[in-house]
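Supplementary Note 3. Input sequence used for the single-chain structure prediction.
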Amino acid sequence: MYRLLIVDDEPVIVNGLVQLFQGNKDFELDICKAYSSGEALEIAKKTKLDILISDIRMPQKNGLQLVDEMVYYWPACRVIFLTGYSEFDYVYEALKKNVENYILKTEGIEPIFQAVKEVIGKLEEEKSVKLQQEKAQRHIQIAEPYLKKEMMDAMLGGEPLPSLLTESIYAEVEFGIAAERPAFFLVGQVDRLEVENLKVLESVQRIFDNHLPASIAREKAIYNGSSLLWILQADEELLGRFRGNQPDENTKEQGIASYMKGILELVQNECVEVLSASVSFGISGNLLGKWDTLHLQVEAVRAMIQKRAAFGQKMVIVDYEKSNACESDMSGEMKQEEFKQLLIEQIHQYVHNNLSKDVSLTAIADEVHFNPSYLSRYYKQITGHNLLEYIQSTKMTVAIDLMMNTSLKLNEIASKAGFDSASYFTTFFKKMTGLSPQEYRNSQ
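The predicted structure, written as discrete structure tokens, is reproduced below.
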């Protein structure tokens, strides 16, 4: 499933396009929306994006500037400009940025649908080429330099990185991680195995490395013959982008973690397609000043992944910093069906508690430690219903309850029920019930 982001400073246009795409059975898209370039960039920092439909003329940062920022995070994202203006300068700048299409708003919806279909075709073709390349390389052995491998093994044995870097035997080793800067680790576990199949593990390593941007340094190892380990470190530019004007280091670290989860979604999806293997990941917090606990944290993350695997949970993305609190809910005596029910209840609870905030697929998946693409399939497999339908039904239930049992104004009800605007609430409500919210309220 591809993810489409629609950006315009006119909510009526954004919401209208969202409805039209959701109502078109020719498309199977995970649709995000934003009403400004700033909001779009916040989405890009935590969500993998495949297609961008954006207005050009927007306040503060226009569509052309937005593209420059967007491709930093997701270079493969395809761009379609939608605008009310046809000035040559805009068209010329758009073409220089390899924008896929430039469509006037007056042309209607069909050219937009056609442009997205063409983009999806190109994305499918590119994916096919990449998959063939990976398949051709699967049997190529990639050997780790001996000393670097020895360093990683020593760290996993309990020796802290700062101490290892002072040893003369490693003086010439070009280790890509600096011990005095923030860093984090990532554990990968192949869910189906043959856990001793070294070629499968090496293929997962290559797929991950292919998706990791140059802004993140990495060192890797195969641990205990069955787990993958990466130590990762963002460069100063990437850290600065997530730091922004926020002095809080936790905000920066959470931003990097969200960005990494978007990358892991890509890796997991490709591993299924190329290797027919589900891969689960666990991500740590900042290792700076905690290098001596690396081996303990790695074992803890592996245990978290294995516990979920025992309950039949695949393609998880465990966040070590967020998981400790919920581990107590997963009793070793719990049966698999009980765990599934617990997970569905957690999803429903999150939707109810965050209806007026963020109930996107990515946000829910982050809460329950799932790959976003897999979450929707898993939810339907367990409940028989689509997660999006549950969210929309919950919004309607909350909205009707507030209309019947409170004196809140309709725009206040729209906000509490998770609608971005009163006009969108009215359109959605009328589509679902045949009546406007006011007509429905008056009829009761």
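The first helix runs from residue 11 to 22. The longest strand covers residues 216-223.
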